[in-house]
Every structure is written in C-alpha cells, then in structure tokens.
Model the fold of this input.
Amino acid sequence: MLIKRFCPRCGKETNALIKGFCRECFLKGHEILIVDEELKFPRCKSCGKIRIRGAWFSDSPKNLEDFIRSKMKLKEITNEKINIGMAPNNDGSVSVQIGVSGTINEDKIEFEKEILLKPAIVLCDPCMRLVSDYHEAILQVRFGKKPSDEQVESEMARINKMLEYEKKADSLSQAIKTAEATNGFDVYIGSAKAARRIAEALAKRAHTRVVSSSKLMGVDSNTGKANKRFTYCARV
Done:
C-alpha cells in the first residue's frame, strides 16, 4: 500500500517530494537555474557575427546555444541534462525554452524556463577597421593586354566569390575598394591572408606565378610587431 505524501506548503498530494516539498513549491523557493529572462547578445551589423566570450563567431543556432550556456548557472542539481530550443521572431529576437532535468538528493526533477534573446547591434573590431578603409593587402590583377569590361567583371565576380568563402573565417576578408590600373585592376582587401590565397588561386588557374612585396607601415606599440602592407600581383 502506497503511503500518501503531501506537500507541507500547498497541501498537494504527490508521490514525488523534493527536500520535503512538491516540485512546484520547491522551485518557488529554490533558484536552480540562474539565467536572465532577457539576454542581449552583441551582433555585428556589418558581417552578422555574434560575440561569445570575447570572440566573434557566425550567427548560427549552435553558437547562439553556446552563448546561452555561457550565461547559465546551475545550483544543487546533479546528473543534469539541458535541452535548449530556439524560435526566431520577426523583430530579430529569439524565444528560447530551456529544459533541465537531473537529481537533487537522489530525487528526480524536471522543469523548463523561457527567456528571450535580443540582439545588441554593434560593429565588430574587424568591421570597425574596414569602415576606416583599413586594408592589409592590395591584390593586383593583370591581363596580357587591356581587358574588356566583361573580363574585368568576370574576374571580379570570381574574387568576390572567394572573398565570401574567406569571410566566414575572417571578417577582414572584404574588398574595401577597387581601382583601375594598366592592363588590369587593383583590389584593396582587409585581410592579407585572404588576399594571398586568392592571388594564388587566380595564378594557378592561369598557370602563372604570384609576385609579392611588402611595405612597412609602422610598429605596434603594444606588441612590438611590425605592421606591413602586402601587394600580391597575379597575372590572369
């Protein structure tokens, strides 16, 4: 015969008491999951990346979940399992449902909490630099003779496609500006690494070699590292 158990606070009959109280009354008096009901996450208005623990990452469900977890704390519960569900809203916010299960003093407990994620629109450090025309490299694209408009457009489309790929890892991988040049054009690129890889890809496609050079632009006062601007010339 099962012994009837009652919650001393609300009088509810239950077979599952947690520290002597029903689940509802226990949760009212104990904050197991500590997280703000509204969280603001920094999102770059230019590249769309979000900041987590001081670094910038792509705005993906996994990274948003990592951001939420970085803001959560659990107390008293052991053997915990956390499930996070997200639903985007039309205003750019994200409704989040956090499900928690585990044990407290060998008593099983499950509960849910709803919070709201709101983007705080900012500029990430790389995009802040790009706004001021910051660039680490100049990609020089050269043809055998004066190119047609179609040739220039075709090569520029190829470069932009490669920049989009590079941008996923480095927000500086953007074309700041372009300029006409004799038998070709120049592309000013924020990331020197991206510019070098693109130059190598263009040269490989045309069975030519990249000619590179660099210019000292100054020395970082904090690290003592030399700041250089690179030029990569690819004949296509």
